[in-house]
Every structure is written in C-alpha cells, then in structure tokens.
Specification:
211 residues, mainly alpha, 9 helices, 81% helix, 0% strand
Length: 211
C-alpha cells in the first residue's frame, strides 16, 4: 500500500513532467474560472484559448471523447460570448429546477452519449479507456445542456463528470489537468448552493404562499 510520502513523491514527479502546454492550459483554465466568478466577459476568450490548448494535450494522451467534449465547449463559449454581448443589459434567464421532461432528456443524453462515444472510441480510435472516457464526456454534455437552460441540477451532472475525470486524468499522467478538474469540482459544489440561494430569493413570495 502506497503511504503519504510515496504519494507526495509521485505527485512531485508528475508535476516535474508537466509540459509547458499543460501549464498554459491550466493557468488559462483557472483564469477563466476566476473571470466567471466576477462576471467578466473576458472569461470567454480566455476559456476558448485554454480549451484549444487542452484539446491538443488530450489528443496526445488518447482522451478522444474529452477532446470532442472540448470542441463542444468552444462552440458554447463562442455562443455565450455573442449572447452576452447581445443581452448585456437585459435581465438574466431565471434559475429553475429541471422538469420531469428535462430529466428524461438529461438521462437520454447521458445514456445515448455514453453508448455512442464508447462505440466511436472502440471502433475508430486507439483509446485504452473507452468506457471511462465516454462516461466522463456524456455526463458533462448533459450537465452543459442543463447549464444552458439555467437548471440547478447542472452542477450535479457536471460534478459527476468531474468526479470520474480526476482519476482518469491521473491515470493518463495529466496531473495538472486533474488538479484543475478538482478546482472545478469545488467551484461546482459551491455553485449549486449559490444557485439554490438565488432560486429561493427569486421565488420567496411563492414559497411564502405555500407555507
């Protein structure tokens, strides 16, 4: 059994092997999260550049489904950037809980996405982790869909993806990417409670009437 000193040595060894491009992607990823926290529009160009860098690294590591997921992130970032500029002075879409129909769609995205990604990875790539890679990507796709619709449960789906992505990235020796994903996991954890507080505030009159 590996003790804490061996784990620390392994971590330091992997950090020393981290490439310049990994550092660039991680730094831009952290910057994107911080810019998002202060609601700054520069989060979009920062995220796009960081994601493009990340795609190159993930392809080299053989994480093809995550690479495809990153392309989706770029598309959503461009959309969000344009949408932000157009609706800068308009009131934001309200946060709500997912309906039964939206949950069915979410589950379908996860299941169908998992199967499709797995088949594509198994038949057309050299991936040695098709099941794991497909699961991480399909749950993230579902989370992004809920996020676009401003549904509280998006944080849950995104963190399911993050939870499985961390050991997957460690297995692929992308230790700094795993550290970034851990940061995103923490942000998503608190994001759920922040959004729930906003939802409660927006629905306070309705909640008062039902009590």
């Amino acid at each position: 059994m590996i003790n804490i000193h061996q784990w620390l040595h392994l971590f330091i060894d992997q950090v020393n092997q981290t490439t310049l491009w990994e550092w660039v992607a991680v730094i831009l990823g952290v910057a994107e999260v911080l810019l998002a926290k202060i609601n700054n529009i520069w989060l979009y160009p920062t995220g796009i550049v960081g994601t493009i860098t990340g795609i190159y690294i993930l392809m080299l590591a053989g994480l093809y489904a995550e690479s495809a997921l990153s392309i989706y992130y770029i598309v959503m970032s461009v959309y969000g950037w344009v949408h932000w500029i157009k609706r800068r002075d308009a009131p934001p879409v309200k946060i709500t809980w997912a309906t039964k129909k939206e949950w069915i769609i979410t589950i379908l995205i996860v299941v169908v996405g998992w199967v499709v990604f797995y088949v594509l990875l198994k038949k057309f790539t050299t991936s040695n982790v098709p099941v794991w890679d497909a699961w991480v990507s399909s749950t993230a796709w579902a989370g992004m869909w809920l996020l676009a619709r401003r549904k509280l449960e998006n944080w849950i789906l995104l963190n399911v993806s993050n939870l499985f992505a961390i050991p997957l990235l460690c297995y692929k020796h992308l230790i700094m990417f795993a550290a970034l994903t851990l940061i995103l996991f923490i942000v998503a954890f608190f994001g759920f409670f922040d959004w729930r507080a906003i939802w409660k505030k927006d629905n306070m009159p309705e909640l008062a009437l039902t009590t």
